[in-house]
């Protein structure tokens, strides 16, 4: 077994080019993403170092119903928006979002690049709301379905007495 495939040395991480990613619902959510988890073969846990330029968001304001995620600020200062409230965050701060608990985003309103370690589950199924866009994402076994929250309705149950004719 090649033990080196389980270890990413600091120099290797520094040399990783990363990928520029733009969120599909937020053109202001632009980041350079280095997927550490993918590099060592993780399939159930996403582990990324992201870099966000001043003036950009880390993602679109959202909440997961099944997946948990967390963020550790490595460098830079920003504003975390959690359930509509704004909080200053900086190096050494940790944010954790249990499933179904709180909509969130981080805005780099500082004057330097924001670097974060971002980790989250990779479940086969998840549901995520994007409250500012009035959208809900259903993800199931690789398929993504995006719907407007206002188009979702609760099915009506029809209950009749047992002797009522149909």
From TrEMBL:
Keywords (A to Z) from UniProt: Metal-binding
TM annotation in the entry: none
Pfam families: Cupin_2
Start and end residues of each Cupin type-2 domain: 49-119
Gene Ontology molecular functions: metal ion binding
Protein name, entry field: Cupin 2, conserved barrel domain protein
Native organism: hydrothermal vent metagenome
